[in-house]
């Protein structure tokens, strides 16, 4: 049985690659999914549709296009990892966590200790708080360990 | 991971074929689904059952038979495209959009600019409004692009 | 036990008033709900928010504001009546019918015989097709008749 | 028919009081709900339970206690307003918006224009974006206006 | 706290009246609901709509009208009693039981011992099998007894 | 795309075999599922568990064991066919239809014209009424016809 | 706005009365609900139905009768308190907690510290762990405090 | 069609191995799933995350990690077997049964006769009570027997 894991959050560091590498090294039965990580492409996702003056409407159009992917992949996933870095508002990541909570979709948060207090509500509904990608890999390995026949 | 996309709407032009061609050219991991596009066969779907005098009961019988396919394929799909052409009432297409909205199934509308005002409610619940099949293909290509490992 | 009935559809004739009158005459335990019926106000519902150039974005903004009311009142209702007149595209009405179908919310259609064929899918998922407001009142009276103690 | 509206977000300004005042002035049939707004009390919500060393576990305990109220009131509400101010991370507000989106609960965002880009995903799933409490009141007045008999 | 109990099943004996009497005697906080019990009116529920030749279409039309009431009242109820008498096919009663089972709506069956074997599937998903209306009243009295403050 | 079709109802004639044959002849992409059709084995499904005196408790035990299969296969199916023959009470078949109706699972009824009136409620929630297995095969062939790419 | 709180668990001590008293003293807007607390009556709930030899079938019959009340009151409640004492297996209490977890119904556990390890799974899905009825009352008072207008 | 069966409950005896052996001997189309059965590893599941002093917070952290697996595998399963042995509190097993009941997931209990009375609520919502692993295998064999084509 393969597990689908969606990696939500900041697209500015290589945290997804680190997790992918860890999963590959341990040969885990996991499919990793995520958003489009090319920041410019993501912001421009709706640019081919209705012409706008940039600003609010341009962002609305692109965000709604991106939602097709995000919502679908989250729903198809068994587990979600939500990453918060030090920079950026990252309200979309907290929003994804809220989606998971309401859908009863288990998620793990990945962030530094300095963000514990502002992330208390997001962490409170999570199944675990990890501080490094390696801890995430450890949790994934534990979760889909072979006590489950496939 | 393959995506299932249901193409709802008018069965009088070749818009489905255009999308299929675009998906094939780009080698997208997409399965396209749709209603029975033979108009006469669709209207006659229930004719082999209870004899009617044509009219309301004949239409009811056939429409209910067609619903087996429509509702099932929409539910099995990840994304729906709802096409509105200039002709015909197309209330069944707007009805399909309402189904999607209530099911939380993301959909994209495909129609000409001249229909913007009468379609405002349908577009408001959509994830995007495209004006050409090529734009639809672009959205599909973006949505299932390779930042998702399979 | 009071019944809530949402009246969806065209806002250009007095069909809602006719139903209200019929319900009042029969002293039915029914609360009638509906959209904002002032057409200009409805189209302008979002005008106080983000400035637009009219057109698509203005319609999107207003339609999304109107959806707060429509979706909420439909969900709070026990039964919905969807009216189709001869004029106008009325895609929002067919859309409301689709919402009802997916939500398992029973609905009745109200339209002239001339629209039977184009409305076959919408009627197929309806509990009844009425041709006059008086027939609707009759169905409401029958449905909430006193064999139900309150 | 009374409407329940949950006011989510920062508890550092008087935006809730402004909305309450506006609703009262217009005599709107609205019940306003919200989180505990005493910041210290909110952070200490779980302090009477298991002793902690402060930090992560203290925050977890309190956040989980606060969730009883938040989740319940959001589910009992017909509409949610999510406020974002300039200060603070406000990840709990974005989280609440995600909850609403997954629950199909309509929500309105309230924030300054400077936050449009980082809030694009949250706004994309919202029914409207307001910039002032007065605009919110206007939307509430429109939404529950008397075209709905009670 | 008042309980709503829907009484489904044959409309040829006075079993509903017996239960109503028992509930009244014990002053139970129960609202009893049921279908239209006038057999002719029930079969004719749709006669005012589309003219038919009697037979299948007439029955379809009336049955769909009756469903508005049945489905709504069952969903609004806390508990359902499904009565099976010796006569008649009573497939609508078994159908109601199936509705309840899928909705997670608790129900009690009321029938004679001679029907135990053919009703085994219906009884298997029920919370109890009663043989007399008095037993039903006893179960209702027990279920809503005063250990629940209101 | 393969379709799963559950065949519910009487296990005394060869109607399932007729449908299977028709599907095979037309090479339909359909998996047929059904209950255990060995009547004695079905009634004895729970006999290996708690000893009973036969009668009600024996039937309860077996029926609850059979429900594991029935409920699971119905939920995994895309479409259900519910067969009613002339003999037997067949309340379990009507019960299955009720399950389908509440789950929004489309179903087709298969029965003789003589049963139209007592089956009106069951037929009213069905997508079609067929009188012969061959008509059922025709509906299945139409429903999964090749206008859907796989 | 009144809160409904269901008190699940052992019926051998006066913990419910303590909570009721605390709620009354603080004048909380809370309705307390619970199971039938007369142990003998609870075990005998089904005795008036099918005669049994005591043992498994007697217990099954009574437990299924009790479930009508338990499941309904839990579903109607906003919050559940699950109490575990030192004695008795109390598997029904842990079962109720599982119901709540799957329903997304928030619950609080009430038990002594000595039971922390065996209750870790039940506590992990709870919103809080209280050790005394007074702590429970404190949580209730905090949760429905007046920052919510009614 | 393969069946997924989750084996919940005590991890101190070889009951899972017995069932696995029985399924293998009969060549059943069944995938068996279960929790991590290494008791120490299970209790330590969260130890790599936040440092704790052991006790409540350590148990909370590990239990929440284990829940990722448990909840996901239960939801992915078609049927669950819940085992209760003589030793240990086993509240997590009763909790799993409650999850299943609310999710409408069929389950079978496996326990000795001596536990009938304290398990009456858990058994009442089960589809069957087995006393030995061999009886469980028999039920599995019956349930997925070849009357279902794949």
Observed structural traits:
homooctamer, 150 residues, alpha/beta, Rossmann fold, YtoQ_family_protein (chains A, B, C, D, E, F, G, H), YtoQ family protein (chains A, B, C, D, E, F, G, H)
For the biggest sheet of chain A, the summary is:
5 strands, parallel
Please identify the top-level CATH class of chain A.
Alpha Beta
The oligomerization state is: homooctamer
Mean pLDDT of chain A: 94
Structural class of chain A: alpha/beta
Outline the low-pLDDT stretches of chain A.
none
By CATH, the architecture of chain A is named 3-Layer(aba) Sandwich
Strand order in the sheet with the most strands of chain A: 2-1-3-4-5
| Biggest chain-to-chain interface with counts | A-D, 40 and 40 residues
What percent of residues of chain A adopt helix (DSSP H or I)? 40-55%
Global geometry of chain A: globular
InterPro entries (chains A, B, C, D, E, F, G, H): YtoQ_family_protein (IPR019884)
Protein name (chains A, B, C, D, E, F, G, H): YtoQ family protein
Organism (chains A, B, C, D, E, F, G, H): Ferrimonas gelatinilytica
């Amino acid at each position: 049985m393969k597990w689908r894991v969606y990696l939500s959050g900041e697209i500015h560091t290589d945290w997804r690659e680190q997790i992918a590498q860890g999963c590959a090294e341990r040969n885990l039965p996991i499919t990793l999914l995520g958003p489009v990580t090319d920041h410019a492409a993501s912001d421009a996702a709706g640019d081919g549709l209705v012409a706008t003056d940039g600003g609010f409407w341009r962002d609305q159009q692109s965000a709604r296009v991106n939602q097709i992917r995000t919502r679908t992949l989250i729903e198809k996933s068994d587990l979600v990892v939500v990453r918060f870095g030090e920079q950026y508002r990252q309200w979309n990541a907290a929003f994804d966590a809220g989606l998971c909570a309401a859908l009863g979709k288990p998620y793990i948060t990945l962030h530094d200790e300095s963000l514990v207090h502002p992330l208390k509500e997001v962490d409170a509904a999570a199944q675990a708080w990890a501080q490094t990608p390696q801890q995430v890999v450890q949790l994934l390995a534990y979760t889909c360990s072979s006590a489950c026949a496939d």
